[in-house]
Amino acid sequence: MPLTAKGPLKRSTRTFWTLLAILLPIVLGTVILYLQAQRTLLRSSLETAEEAIEQFDQMLDHSDSAARALLPLAGQDCDDARQLTLREQVTRRPLVRSTNLVWRNNNYCSSYLGSYAAVLNPQDYVDGRLRLMDGNHLTPDTPLLVYRLTDGEGAALAAINGYHPTNILRMLSRFAQLQLQVGQHWLSSDGQVRDGNAPLAAVASQQLTSSRYPYSVNAGFAQGSLWQHMKNQYPALFGLLIFLGATAGALAHWLQKRAISPRHELQRALEAGEFIPYFQPVVRGDTLQWAGIEVLMRWQHPREGLVRPDLFIPFAEHTGLIVPMTRSLLEQTREALAPCAKDFIDGFHIAINITARHCQDLQLLQDCREFLAGFEPGKVTLVLELTERQLIEPTEITQQLFSALHELGVMIAIDDFGTGHSSLGYLRKFNVDYLKIDQSFVAMIGADALSLHILDSIIELSLKLDLRIVAEGIETAEQRDYLTAKGVQFLQGYLFGRPMPSAEFVAAVVRH
Ligand code: C2E
Ligand code: CA
Ligand code: CA
To answer: What is the pTM of this model?
Structure first.
């Protein structure tokens, strides 16, 4: 039945949407946080590199000042006075560890050793100006940054102990990775000089070159720093994302549950106009001419196809949706039949099934009025079929309703007669016009004598009460003949016509 059917596909689709609703805010939010973290780390490594350049430039400015002061002495003798000048620069200039004089690539005078002889290869200096060494013969394990200033054949050298650049790298790279690259050598914050190019950082790698001295700086972060950064910086936002995901999931779950709840499904179907009328002819017992029709509801379900009313009417009654459903059925019936009403015999009966719930206020009267307004006066007779299984409480409102209906010319039929407990008083109170003998009694025709006796009693009773009778469920000629012989005025059943959609009915009405 369509109201409760939940196939495995539907369940998996529901789970899919719920999971999607949970994951979507979490994934999207994480992507946004990821991009944000990436931007933050890129900016941070750029700032670190800029700061490092500034510090290294300042450091080399001291070497430059020392070398500039000594350069005019290059080529002069390395006597005590010169040595003293060299030492003076070491003492006066911060960070400068030693100074040398060079003439024609001969390193001949040292602040430390005095007169001295060593060959200097200008190729060892990047741009002829800067050299990063992992040590010299005096301090083989201590890196050294040597600055060279030349003028013609003379040159002055000012060396800085590797401790200082290492210290700058270490101070600035508390969270980042930072290296000083000078030509084909690089220094890292562990104080080691290595050959080649420093490896690029795995995350947010930045490379900056000094505009004043021939070196560059590499900054960046190690593998996994991005997630680490996100974990440290956005714990509250992650909590919020999980909360949003859970809320969205719960909302999606609730909405889907609501969408598949039987009540919501009926409401949806009503709004989508899926409840449509089928018409079954009711014929006169004597002439077998079409005297009217019964309007029967069908649910044109988009997936399940045409659904029988006994599968959804009880639930529609339970929820109260039967009232607007019946109203819609009346409107559709009026629209379908008004154009062909000229082919009807006068007073053509249009019977519609009404539940007890529909009779609790005067709205039904208005619905009937609107229906009849669609036809020429006297062309059709509206019959309300009330099942005997649900008796209507006689209250002031119902009394008022039924007398007003009577005045309007609307007739009342008791449906499924013989299966309930209506009394003579009940039939009188509601001004009943017709009794519809239930098809279970009609089915007794041709069976045993006792069953037939019950049917005969019902027919006799109806005639005595001066009520007109409709017998329903006539499928055989034997049933038809028996009932007409008993004086039953109206007959309904597959023998005369099955319930049919309006287009088919409109086409058939002309023939009858
Ligand atoms: P009902 O009012 O007693 O309607 C007659 C039922 O008998 C219809 O079933 C009709 O198709 C079926 N029928 C007619 N002739 C024959 C026949 O020769 N043989 C057999 N075996 N059946 C025959 P349907 O259309 O399935 O409706 C079932 C019930 O659903 C109706 O019984 C009525 O109680 C309810 N129903 C249908 N439409 C509405 C509606 O618009 N409002 C309300 N409240 N109830 C409705
Ligand atoms: Ca009926
Ligand atoms: Ca019936």
So the answer is: 0.61
**Residues 318, 319, 323, 327: is their CA dihedral positive or negative?**
negative
| Band (10; pLDDT cuts 50, 70, 90) | low
Q: Is residue 255 part of a domain?
A: no
Indicate whether residue 329 lines ligand 1 (CB < 6 A): yes
CATH classification at residue 164:
3.30.450
Determine the structural domain holding residue 178 and report its residue range.
Answer: 56-223
Ligand 1 proximity of 42 Cβ (cutoff 6 Å): no
**What's the total number of domains in the chain?**
2
| 358 CA: nearest ligand 1 atom | 44
The pLDDT, as a whole number, for residue 76 is 95
Task: Calculate helix-pair angle for 322-337, 502-511, nearest 10 degrees.
Answer: 40
* 38's tokens: 């990436």
CA angle 150, 156, 162 (to 5 degrees): 115
Q: Looking at the structure, do residues 434 and 350 belong to the same domain, yes or no?
A: yes
Nearest CA to ligand 1 atom 46: 353
198-234 pLDDT, tens digit each: 999 889 999 999 999 999 999 999 898 889 889 888 8
CATH code for the domain of 463: 3.20.20.450
